[in-house]
Design a protein that fits this description.
The chain has 71 residues and is mostly beta strands. The chain is built from no helices and six strands.
């Protein structure tokens, strides 16, 4: 699967970031510099940099994560 980035004015996809199968919850950091995606297919949370729109890190978590939250 992939995470799609949309232009809100045109409602068109402007970027697609591959993250693997069974993508679940997604949340952005408070400063907007990173996006965190729970990916069940890799049992990890993928960290996406919002400047380059690339996966910069993968954090191993339990089996089949389907959500993510920031406190």
């Amino acid at each position: 699967g992939e995470v799609n980035v949309y232009d809100t004015a045109t409602r068109e996809i402007v970027q697609s970031i591959p993250v693997g199968s069974a993508g679940g919850g997604i949340v952005a950091s408070a400063d907007g510099k990173r996006v965190f995606v729970a990916v069940g297919g890799t049992n990890a949370v993928h960290v996406i940099d919002t400047q380059s729109w690339t996966v910069t890190d993968r954090v191993s978590v339990g089996r089949n994560p389907d959500g993510v939250a920031i406190r």
